[in-house]
Amino acid sequence: MTPPVPTSPIDSAAGILAVDKPVGPTSRAVLDRIGRLLPRGTRFGHAGTLDPAASGLLIVCLGSATRLIRLLHAAGKSYQATVRLGATSNTLDADGIISETPDATAPTLETIQAALVPLTGRVRQIPPAFSALKVGGQRAYDLARRGVSFELQAREVQIDRIAVLSYAWPLLELEIDCGSGTYIRSIARDLGEAVATGGLLQSLRRTRVGRLTLADAVPLDELTPESLPSQIRPARDAVAHLGQIALKPAQLALIRHGRPLDTRRVAGLDPAWDGAEIALLDPAGGLAAIGRVELASSRLAPTCVLPLSASGDLK
Predict the structure, then answer these.
(1) 51 is catalytic
(2) Nearest to 197 by CA among 103, 116, 288
(3) CATH number for domain 15-75+216-235, candidates 3.30.70.660, 2.60.40.2660, 3.30.2350.10, 3.40.190.10
(4) CB 289 within 8 A of CB 238
(5) Which of 60, 91, 200, 266 is 20 to 30 A from 300, comparing alpha carbons?
(6) Tens digits of residue pLDDT in 117-160
């Protein structure tokens, strides 16, 4: 008879890990390392890839909190980026084949700041050829590595803010707040074209996902089987960027059975949430579900319900 798998305090836990990924490993490698610290059978996944050359905030969802990954993918993010002007790269970053721009003249800070203005807001951005996007069922980076010619269509992305932190030719330090699907490498390329010097992404560090920041993160090397349980944050933290309301017990029971609530009987609903998903909390403040507000039909319908543990605590 096969002995039972040993249990641990995080066997049934649902929550998130905010990890400070170092330069070097892939996001998949970080996941594999964390997976070896988890009990067998634990579900887990990350909410947004970082390239090997990038560092910073990587959110790992555990247990039923993996249902929240799509919401973290869609959350706003912040980055600190170093752009190298005066050169270009086939991958748009320092890992590619770099070509110096002949006779490049250092632009003034005022010229750079003016060039950043049209790169912010709701803009159309062409993704890098070396990206994970699919072209005819194949990854763009696979085609690019084989020298196959193809075009990626521009996509609309939201870039809320690009601030200059420092500038000493040819290096430009930027802080960027943006929405889902934004390629920072493409910003470096587009800025370089705008100031007629060429540009590539020298380094990148993600500093925020939703409301979570690097201040919430633990360095990857500090995660051990002993330290891991204390680093798990509640599932509610994953959706702190969403609107939130607390449900009464009777309302919670309906939501848990997949039934919508009448918005006219839900206290604290903000009309600005119409059409959006919000976090639904249990009376103890734990995350019970995600629901979509539909004011025209007076419905608050669950789109994701998190289960209860055997002890009754929200997991």
Answers:
(1) yes
(2) 103
(3) 3.30.2350.10
(4) no
(5) 60
(6) 999 999 999 888 877 777 778 787 777 787 777 777 889 999 99
